[in-house]
Amino acid sequence: LATLGLLLRFSETAAAAEQQVLRAVESNFGPELTIAIDGLLSRLQEGSLIAIGVSVIGLLITAAALFRHLRISFRALWKQAPPLVSGSMRSAVRETVLEQVKAFAMVLTAGALLIVTLGFIAVVHWLSGLFSALPRFSDTAGWLLALPIPLILATLTFGLLFKFLPPVPLAWRHVWLAALLCGIAWIVGADLLALYASFGDNSAYGAIGGLFVVMLWMKFVSQVLFYGAELCKVVATAPS
């Protein structure tokens, strides 16, 4: 919403689109709803800068807290004490600050990876439209182009987590197998979740069932992440 207000404030294209939407609303629903939507959009424009600042800071803090707790969990997996109990006060403060800096770095890396993902999706859509003009590739081009991209991105994401979350340095040869297996599990689980969403019930009982499915999905992702981390530990500590 804050980004929408910012676009309406500084983009002439967005302002022109806003006027078209308001005219369409007025012609279909009357002037009362148009006035209400116009007032809401005006308030969005006025508070867009503050809202974006608050949103970005809030997302950075919460996401950094998530990565920090993940690093604490990985410390427990490697049988290492948390920073606050692993040494003197000076080293504990230094390790705590370092953990926070690493968490912020991981958040920024995740944002950059998300931008790369959106770029890949745009390229895939462009190539799908290009190959769909050829009769021979019209049915399978989109599927063949779209299949490797999620697997590569999921594997890369798990690989980065397995390499930088543990408290000990790991080489890429220690994490690639676990990252690949976790990437495959992520793709299969995401497809099953999408399949449930396609054929799920839309009633109130279906909504409650959907909530339980989302909770099950979160449990599944957590188990995949920690089993992959355990596999990395086994590979790294195995005698060569």
Report on the structure:
By secondary structure, this protein is mostly helical. The chain has nine helices and no strands. Helix 2 packs antiparallel against helix 3, helix 7 (148-164) packs across helix 8 (172-199) and helix 8 packs antiparallel against helix 9 (204-237). The longest helix is centred in the middle third of the chain and has 44 residues, at 89-132. It is globular.
Give the helix/strand layout.
Elements: H1 2-10, H2 12-29, H3 31-46, H4 48-77, H5 89-132, H6 141-146, H7 148-164, H8 172-199, H9 204-237
Helix pairs in contact: 1-2, 1-3, 1-4, 2-3, 4-5, 7-8, 8-9
Helix share of residues?
over 70%
How many individual helices? 9
Alpha-beta content class: mainly alpha
Q: Can you tell me the residue ranges where pLDDT is under 50 for at least 5 consecutive residues? A: none
Terminus-to-terminus distance:
54 Å
Q: What's the Cα radius of gyration?
A: 24 Å
Query: Strand share of the residues?
Result: under 5%
Features of the shown structure:
single chain, 9 helices, 240 residues, mainly alpha, 0% strand, globular
